[in-house]
Amino acid sequence: IWLSSKEGGTVLGKPMPGYGEEWNGPGRRYIRTLRRDGHEWRVVSVADDGGGYRIFVAQRDDLRNYIAREIGNHLLHIQLIVIPLVMVVLWLAVWRGLRPLSRLGRQIANRRPGNLQPVQLKGVPREVLPVVKEINRLLDRLRITLESERAFTANAAHELRNPLAAMRNLGRVVSEGRDLQEVRHCGLLLERSMERMATLLSQLLHLARLDAAVSDPGDRESPLREAVEVCVSELLEQTEARHMEIAYQARLEILLRMDPGILQMLLSNLLSNAVKYGREGGRITIRAIRDGERLRLEVLDEGEGVPEEQLSQLFD
């Protein structure tokens, strides 16, 4: 390392033997590589702002490479120790962090198929707590659905058992009967039992259609007036037999985004009840009223209504 003056030669330090100092051509800063005594040298020079003084630094490449290798080897040795330690610490941290998830997974995996009780929230990580809560809500909905299906299956089996038992008894009476009047009476009762059973089977088919439509609603649309006309035409015979009048009241032409079959099932159920339990010679009114963003569909009759004690069971 040496400092030279443009006018008076070396000011400080010891110049590199045999190196010709450059002042005019290379600019304020430059780097030169030269070979001397079998070694490559790197020479760096910087001049002051006025260009009167210039400092030179010369270094052998092999010494610079040796220092770089020493630094690299030192860092490598440190990394060979630190990286495994970091990996172990990370593995322990991840294992400890995922351990509650593993317990949660085992808790769900060890459940029996019919166990729809809520998942325990104790020990569940805060990050997955909303997911577990949604799973519990889903399990609760599934439990309610399965209980409803079990109750429906039990009721359907009970309802089907009664007409089958009656048909069996009536068939025995018919086969053993000797009186023609008694046989005709039993045949009439047998026909009524068969009609009741056919109604129950029709309701089961309607339920199957309803489940299929709910699972795949599609993009079908249903005009309300058209559904009313179809249902009224089906009940026309019973309506005339009871001398009843049906009126449809709606200010707008209403188009519902739902399956036409489901809408007709709904209206048919309500209208058949109104015809069956309404006042003979009375009036049945179908009204469609806009209620905010919703549509309220009403079927009104002039019957006595549902007894107070049975209102809680109306939608069973």
Could you characterize what this model shows?
The protein is an alpha+beta fold and 316 residues long. It is built from six helices and ten strands, in the order βββββαααβααββαββ.
Q: What brief labels describe this structure?
A:
316 residues; alpha+beta; 10 strands
> How many H/I helices?
6
Quaternary structure type:
single chain
Helix/strand structural class: alpha+beta
Shape: elongated
Strand elements, count: 10
Q: Please tell me how large the radius of gyration is.
A: 48 Å
Order of helices and strands: EEEEEHHHEHHEEHEE
Question: Could you provide a short overview of the structure?
Answer:
The protein is α+β, with helices and mostly antiparallel strands and 316 residues long.
Topology:
Elements: E1 2-5, E2 9-13, E3 29-36, E4 39-47, E5 53-60, H1 61-109, H2 129-176, H3 180-215, E6 222-223, H4 224-234, H5 236-241, E7 245-249, E8 255-256, H6 260-277, E9 283-291, E10 294-300
Parallel strand pairs: 7-9
Antiparallel strand pairs: 1-2, 1-5, 3-4, 4-5, 6-8, 9-10
Helix pairs in contact: 2-3, 4-6
